[in-house]
Amino acid sequence: MNSAFTDIIKRTLEEDGAYCDVTTLSTVPGTQQAQAAIIARRAGVIAGLEVAAQAFTLFDARITVTLLVQDGATVKPDERLATISGPARSILSAERTALNFLGHLSGIATLTAHCVSAIEGTGAHILDTRKTMPGLRMLEKQAVRLGGGQNHRFGLDDGILIKDNHIKAAGGITQAVEAARRMAPHLFKVEVECETLEQVQEALEARADVIMLDNMSVEVMQAAVTSIREQNPQVLIEASGSIGTDEKRLKAVASTGVDFISLGAITHSAPQFDISLEFA
Predict the structure, then answer these.
(1) Is residue 236 classed exposed, middle or buried when 0-12, 13-18 and 19+ CB atoms within 10 A define those classes?
(2) H or E segment to which residue 33 belongs
(3) If you average pLDDT over residues 152-156, what whole number do you get?
(4) Which residues form the Quinolinate phosphoribosyl transferase N-terminal domain (predicted)?
(5) Which of 163, 201, 206, 210 is the most exposed place for a label (fewest CB within 10 A)?
(6) Bridge-partner residues for 82, per DSSP?
(7) What is the pLDDT of residue 216?
(8) Considering 131, 137, 145, 249, which one is annotated as catalytic?
(9) What superfamily would CATH give domain 116-269?
(10) Is 181 annotated as a binding residue?
(11) How far apart (Å, rounded) are the C-alpha atoms in residues 1 and 7?
(12) SS3 193
């Protein structure tokens, strides 16, 4: 387990007051042992199971967790995901932290899988964004991959994406791209966010490597893709902005011929995956 994940888990256990669980301490004998199971209550893709297991064992090394499926597995309703045995008090005190991670990350993986399925056969790929919960980006982006999606930038330091405010501050797309080229290592691609066909043309003439079609209608997006493919087939095309996770909308966007569709919704708006822990 990544040490950064370990620190996050420890902090969330502390946040939940798990080390002074007054309800459990007052109602459950300290000597009582228990066996329990983690159960999926709906169909979907599992992510965060190893993190959930780590929450139990970090809280109390006497707890044993046996995984019955692996992260990335597609499960059915009422399927058992793991069994847990150990001190009853410790299992109860770590339960909510473990299930919070598992439910949140499985929700992301499941929604991502839905979006990937919606555009199957089009040649486009689903990307995430930087719209993640503070401190959870690595875990959330891992969940996207488990759901069949791909990762966009992990942070501001690993890719150049020139957005509308950069363009305004630099004085235009051409000036922004030229400035980025002067500073960027030769291995970095330069991506430009465009909201109009005129901006697309300027980005092409400035030799952008990737053009993001932001908040465009499907009709305008199609015209942009056609223009880019005719002028420079090597340029990668990304669609973004208010696309959402509706299957029909995703397929329409993908059918324009874009290479990527980036969706903030798969991380910031994924429904919690319904999971429970039950004592035997």
Answers:
(1) middle
(2) strand 33-40
(3) 95
(4) 21-106
(5) 163
(6) 38, 67
(7) 97
(8) 131
(9) Aldolase class I (3.20.20.70)
(10) no
(11) 10
(12) strand
Strands of the sheet with 80-87, listed across from one edge: 64-67, 80-87, 33-40, 275-279
How long, in residues, is the chain?
280
Task: Write out the E strands in 99-167.
Answer: 125-127, 160-162
The catalytically annotated residue of 10, 42, 96, 137 is 96
Residue 248 buriedness (CB in 10 A; 0-12 / 13-18 / 19+): exposed
For 173-204, the pLDDT digits (tens) are 999 999 999 998 888 999 999 999 999 999 99
Alpha helices in 119-217 (DSSP H): 137-146, 164-170, 173-183, 197-205
CA distance 102 to 53: 9
In tens, the pLDDT along 220-274 reads 999 999 999 999 999 999 999 989 999 999 999 999 999 999 999 999 999 999 9
Q: Where are the domains of the chain?
A: 3-110+271-279, 116-269
Task: Find where tokens 């046996």 sit.
Answer: 66
**Catalytic residue list contains 193:** yes
Examine the residue annotation and report whether 195 is marked as an active-site residue of this protein.
no
What is the residue whose two structure tokens read 């990350």?
105
Q: For residue 5, name the pLDDT band (cuts at 50, 70, 90).
A: confident
The answer to whether 141 is a known ligand-binding residue is no
3-110+271-279 placed in CATH 3.30.365.10? no
Confirm whether 140 is a catalytic residue: no
Cα distance between residue 128 and residue 163, in whole Å:
17
